[in-house]
Amino acid sequence: MVLGLEKQTAVITGASSGIGRAIAKGLARQGVSLCLMGRNIAGLEKAGSKEDSTSAMRMYKVDLSFEAGIRQVAEDITKDVGHVDILIHCAGDYSMGLISSTPVEELDRQYKINVRAPYILTQTLLPIIRPQGGQIVYQFKCRSQGKGKSFPVRSQQTCAESDC
Ligand SMILES: NC(=O)c1ccc[n+]([C@@H]2O[C@H](COP(=O)([O-])OP(=O)(O)OC[C@H]3O[C@@H](n4cnc5c(N)ncnc54)[C@H](OP(=O)(O)O)[C@@H]3O)[C@@H](O)[C@H]2O)c1
Fold first, then answer.
1. Which residue puts its alpha carbon closest to atom 10 of ligand 1?
2. Tens of pLDDT along 141-163?
3. What is the pLDDT of residues 86-132, one digit of tens each?
4. Full residue range of the structural domain in which residue 54 is found
5. Tell me, what CATH number does 73's domain have?
6. What is the atom index within ligand 1 of the atom nearest the CA of 65?
7. Residue 1: inside a domain
């Protein structure tokens, strides 16, 4: 299916594997120029392989735990492409464990990657997203658990968001 996205530019975090990589491959086939972010460059290369597209692909190695790194990559993208039509946050990390025994530092680590990083990246890229009415997608998770049910092992972030 042709979506009419040719000549658009997309920034995708977490593009080195999983959902982010699959989205990158799909957009490359639609002729979208890609700015792919992750720590694993070999994974990013697979996401934007030339067999999928002839559109431009740029890779940005960044650890989203570090604010300075996020700001630097946003600056680099601004210089390199000048406008962003689609920003997709796919990077994410979690670990499973009991809230009773997991150090709060683990929650802090997940919060940095899953919440703080998308906030900072969106904020820093907005000046080059807004003018052409770009789209922002935040791919994360939804909870299907009903109130009152007990899951002893869950991600710390989910525990903190809910009543367990
Ligand atoms: N798979 C599912 O069924 C599912 C369902 C609902 C929600 N989710 C959520 O969707 C998100 C993506 O899922 P996925 O299955 O695609 O996971 P995945 O295959 O583990 O991919 C996670 C991505 O996040 C990046 N990442 C993690 N920590 C990072 C950091 N500190 N700095 C920069 N990049 C980082 C990784 O890149 P590098 O390793 O290259 O840094 C990787 O590309 C996660 O938040 C997950 O919880 C997944």
1. 140
2. 645 444 444 444 455 555 555 54
3. 999 999 998 888 989 999 999 999 999 999 999 999 999 999 999 99
4. 9-157
5. 3.40.50.720
6. 31
7. no
